[in-house]
Amino acid sequence: MKVLISPISTAEAVVAWECGTNIIDIKNINEGSLGASFPWIIREVISRINDPKVVFSATLGDLPHKPGTASLAALGAVSSGVKYVKAGLHGSKDVAEGVELMSAVVRTCKDFDPSVTVVTAGYADYQRFGGLSPQQLVEIAAESKSDMVMVDTYIKDGKSLFDALNEQQLTEFVQQAHAKGLKVALAGSVRAEHLELLARIGADVVGVRGAVCSGYDRGTTIDPVKAEQFIKAANAIAVAQ
Asked: Which Pfam families does this entry report, sorted A to Z (predicted)?
C-alpha cells in the first residue's frame, strides 16, 4: 500500500519528499476536493525535487461533463511532467457520460506518454450531491481503459471516507476493481488510525492531506512530523503484510 500526499506548493512538496512519500500529488485545494493546480507549480515541484524514485501526480479538478475541456486539462498535466493523472467525475451523470469523459482523458494521456497512469476518480459521499456510485466508477474506469479507480470525499466538512462507506462497501469496491484489473486508491479525511483497515480492505494507494497537516486541517500546511509518522506507520503495516 503506497502513500500519496497532496501538497499545494513546492515547499510542501519538498517536505513530503523528505518524509519519504511514494507519490506527490500536486493539487489546489481552493478549487475543491480534486482541485487542479497550475502548470508552473507542477513544473517547479518536479524541477525542485528531481528524484526518479518519486512519482508525480496531478489532479484535473472536480470536472464538469466536458470531455474536450478535460482532454486539454489532461494534456496540460502530462506535458508538465506528471506520471499520474486524476480526473474527478463530478459533472458526469451516468456511466455513458463517465466513459465518454474518461476515454477522452485516457486517449490524451496515452497518446502523449503510454506510461502515464490514468485515474478515474469519484466520491465516496456521492449520495450527498447525486454523484456516481463506486460501482459505476469501476465500470467507467474499466470501459475507458483507465489504470486506476479512486474515491475521495467531495464535501470537506469533517466527515471521512468511512462516514460515507462502510468496510463491507469499500471491500466490495476494491474487489470489483481488482477483478477488472484496476488498481485502487482510497482517500477522504483518513488518518493514521485508519491504515490497518485500509490495508485489510486492499487499497493499493492511500491518499492524504489533512492527516499530515497542522491541526489535521487540510487548509493549513503539511507538518513534517505528522507526515513522517504517517509514512512510518504505513510502511510498518506494509512490512507486516
From this structure: 4HFCP_synth
Q: How confident is the model at residue 158 (pLDDT cuts 50, 70, 90)?
A: confident
Report d(CA 241, CA 237) in Å as an integer: 6
Q: Which of 83, 86, 183, 226 is catalytic?
A: 86
Q: How far apart are CA 79 and CA 85, in angstroms?
A: 11
Per residue in 7-36, pLDDT tens?
999 999 999 999 999 999 999 999 999 999
110 is catalytic: no
Q: With left for phi above 0 and alpha for psi between -120 and 50, is residue 189 left, alpha or beta?
A: left
Q: Is 225 exposed, middle or buried (0-12, 13-18, 19+ CB in 10 A)?
A: exposed
Is residue 86 annotated as a catalytic residue, yes or no?
A: yes
Burial 3-38 (b: 16+ CB within 10 A, else e): bbbbbbbbebbbbbbebbbbbbbbbbbeebbbbbbe
Q: Count the Cβ atoms, other than its own, within 10 Å of residue 127.
A: 11
Among the listed residues 27, 83, 183, 226, the single catalytic one is: 27
Is 62 a residue whose pLDDT tops 80? yes
Decide: 14 and 50 in contact? Cβ < 8 Å. no
Task: Provide the whole-model pTM.
Answer: 0.95
Concatenated DSSP letters of 82-131 = -SEEEEEESS--SHHHHHHHHHHHHHHHHHH-TTPEEEEEEETTGGGTT-
Helix (H, G, I), strand (E, B) or coil at 241: coil
